[in-house]
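Risk register update: the risk of archive-format incompatibility is retired. Evidence:
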Amino acid sequence: MSGKDKPKPKKEKVPRQHMREQDPMERNKNFEQVNLGYTAELAVREANRCIQCKKPACVPGCPVEIDIPGFIKLITEEKFVEAARKIKETNCLPAVCGRVCPQEDQCEGPCVLGKKGEPVAIGHLERFAADYEREQGAVAVPELPPKTGYRVAVVGCGPGGMTVAGDLVMMGHEVTIFEALHKPGGVLVYGIPEFRLPKAVLYAEVDYLQKLGVKVETNAIIGKMFTIDELLGQEGFDAVFIAVGAGAPMFMNIPGENLNGVFSANEYLTRSNLMKAYQFPEYDTPMIRARNAVVIGGGNTAMDTVRTAKRLGAEHATIVYRRSRHELPAREEEIMHAEEEGIEFKFLTAPLRILSDENGWVRAMECIQMELGEPDESGRRRPVPIKGSEFEMEVDLVVVAIGTNANPLIMQTTPDLEINKWGYIVGDPETGATSKKGVFAGGDIVTGGATVILAMGSGKKSARAIHEYLQTVKK
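Archived output:
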């Protein structure tokens, strides 16, 4: 048999590399990161699983358009800093995205390797590269183009606002972000717990934006400090991007929701995250230390909330969800981590009313058992109450995590800004352009509550549209 006729040796099939994690029964008592990241050895091993497709299906799945094969190849060559900089060509928040982006539904979902096995761990590799660059002190500001002379105001320093700001400043425009809270980050700082996204990591990403030249003004409530018209008029901005999110809480409108011990997820997580209740006793933020905590809902916010309650000392921390586990909208990783940490789940259960003690504090919650009927408009089977199945749960903390609404302040002070029947701004899905000339909007204030990466994707589209607007309409 000639040499060329010999069968080629099969390449060793390398399994997906598991990220190191804290032990569940240890981490459910602290706020340190659950996922501990890849070592350099693990990162290179995982990166080498990528087969560098000629037409990579992963890239179209990324809302911020990262050159995924490009940065992964650099990791295989152990060029870790270069890999981070490759990501930053289109994404100014890689350490955030590597931690909280639902890669399983975005870039990893269409990965070719996932058709017969497990996809490349793109999110883990993105986090590794970003963390390596930061920890090595190798973060560098790229060369910026000449200034255009145009000024853009961004309202809200969350993921969408930071993305549009980073992209626009890289196009040569002057950008100022106005943030209502006393810390930048939006939902990333008030909504996502330290054990998923450490504040130091987030603030390092904000610091990078500021080094690029983005100005950030905190404690700046647009609608009070300035209106949108005043930003475009007396303040001299040429365009405005509204990225205020959807931070108004939503409740169930059942009896007892006004009792002491009932919170919205927004308030509960803000107290813990932004107001540092998780650092008790260093920060003595008022916070109920519950024995029996119940969180109503099944999304990522519900998982963050119930896992926070467990870490703050709850003996029993329970998710109450009206559908089955199969319908839970939260990321599978977050559900799995919650289960490992001892979170209890009551599926096919709906609250009817919250009951008080003689002092007006929560003592119990009356619920009813449900069964799944026909699919509703979301495509999920509709939960139907089972007659006569009512029961009581002993609780001393109830947190409602069933979604959010738009804060109406911007809309109330900008009467010519078109809104839809749910109170969200009407914006073009491809450009973010609104009914008001020079005003663009994106993220949750347009779509309603969605993911961090989708808000970032809308910011990226709007940055291009704003740039075109400034170059044409304003010229």
